[in-house]
Design a protein that fits this description.
The longest helix is centred in the first third of the chain and has 14 residues, at about 45-55. This protein folds into two domains: about 25-270, ANL, N-terminal domain (Rossmann fold), CATH 3.40.50; about 275-375, 2-Layer Sandwich (GMP Synthetase, Chain A, domain 3). The chain contains ten helices and 19 strands. By secondary structure, the protein is of the alpha/beta class. The strands form five sheets. It has a six-stranded mixed β-sheet, with helices on both faces. Strands 9, 10, 12, 13 and 14 form a five-stranded antiparallel β-sheet that branches. β15 (about 275-280) and β16 (about 280-285) form a beta hairpin. α1 packs across α2.
């Protein structure tokens, strides 16, 4: 029998909202492409978000999640904390330090872990730097968890593959945002397809449309729109932005994507910063980044479009060299890319940097990267 929607699994006193449309939560967007906006979520919205995830990911009162995510974001507040409370599960807050995180994952007490790609990369590096006996202990213990989830930014396939080698786990990648909760998810049981975020969750409608709002044929790219009970009510104090965010009842995510075999969706990036329009072509920066992260000299890399009089935008890359590769010529990186990408997808500029600007969720702030490249 599922727990009461208001008391969870405990008999503690409780109150109920006066109406499902009563505001329940105000979370601010991450501000990746502009100033953060307050997204007002009702009790009805929040209930839909939580019940969908607890069912899809098999939450039970016997679960124990290691929580190392910020609590000002939907990933940490709803996906990890609220779902645990709803299910009557235990939520253990950790420091986030790689060694202590590994120790807790290996303890045999944790069943669930959710994080962002940047953290998984840091955990992999900590594992690779550890002594062989420590590696065996960490890997063996982590293998006993029932589920590990990645979100809030695109999961590089190389990170997904390496994490599987280290822990035996295939990370479950999903797609959502502050305004809609989670909309797409690879399955708990079944294929977790690399580079994809799965089909729509139960009760969620998702479609791909062109610039005029017309649905596109399967396989073609377009904007992702979402409709369902989990979609937020409005942006706080911003009626103009709220009106612009909806089209005929569908929420316009601002993300470019496509849907392929089996209804699995692939995210190509934010239309405003990840889709570069160059010489009449539309290029997914995420696709280019994914490839270059497999280069042995590249620790990390991001691609942005910079204004250009002739081409509209030029692809430019800011990259962090791997140890011992700081002196590799940009021409070598371009030549390597030309062997693997269409010529118009290869960045024209490569700028080595010591680090990339990120927000609290580990997501690269591409507007700041653009400023770095012109300094």
């Amino acid at each position: 029998t599922p727990p009461s929607p208001h008391t969870g699994s405990t008999p503690t006193p409780h109150t109920t909202p006066p109406h499902p449309s009563t505001p329940a939560l105000l979370i601010y967007t991450s501000g990746t492409t502009g100033r953060p906006k307050g997204a007002l979520t009702t009790h009805h919205n929040l209930t839909a978000q939580i019940t969908t995830l607890t069912a899809a990911w098999g939450w039970t009162a016997s679960d124990r999640i290691l929580h190392t995510l910020p609590l000002h974001h939907i990933h940490g507040l709803v996906n990890a904390l609220a779902c645990a409370l709803w299910s009557g599960a235990a939520c253990e807050f950790g420091s986030g330090a790689p060694a202590s995180t590994w120790d807790r994952l290996a303890s045999g007490e944790i069943t669930l872990f959710m994080s962002v790609p940047t953290v998984y990369t840091r955990l992999i590096r900590a594992w690779e730097a550890a002594l062989p006996a420590t590696r065996r202990r960490w890997s063996g213990g982590a293998a006993r968890l029932r589920l590990m989830v990645s979100g809030s930014a695109a999961l590089p396939v190389a990170t997904m593959d390496r994490w599987r080698e280290v822990t035996g786990h295939t990370l479950l990648e999903r797609y959502g945002m502050t305004e809609i909760g989670m909309a797409l998810s690879n399955p708990l049981e079944g294929e977790r397809r690399p580079g994809h975020v799965g089909p729509p969750l139960p009760g969620v409608e998702v479609r791909i449309v062109d610039d005029e709002g017309h649905p596109v044929p399967r396989g073609e790219h377009g904007e992702i729109e979402v409709r369902g009970p989990q979609v937020f009510r409005k942006y706080w104090g911003r009626p103009v932005e709220t009106a612009a965010a909806f089209r005929e009842g569908w929420f316009r995510t601002g993300d470019e994507g496509c849907v392929g075999e089996g209804g699995y969706y692939r995210i190509l990036g934010r239309r405003s910063v990840d889709i570069v329009k160059t010489g009449g072509y539309k290029v997914s920066a995420l696709e280019v980044e994914e490839l270059y992260r497999t280069h042995p000299a590249v620790q990390d890399l991001v691609v942005v479009g910079m204004p250009h009089d002739e081409w509209g935008e030029l692809l430019c890359a800011a990259w962090i060299p791997s140890a011992g590769h700081a002196d590799i010529p940009a021409g070598d990186l371009r030549a390597w890319g030309k062997e693997r990408l269409a010529p118009y997808k290869v960045p024209h500029l490569f700028r080595a940097v010591p680090e990339l600007p990120r927000n609290a969720m580990g997501k690269v702030q591409k507007t700041r990267v653009r400023r770095m490249l012109v300094e």
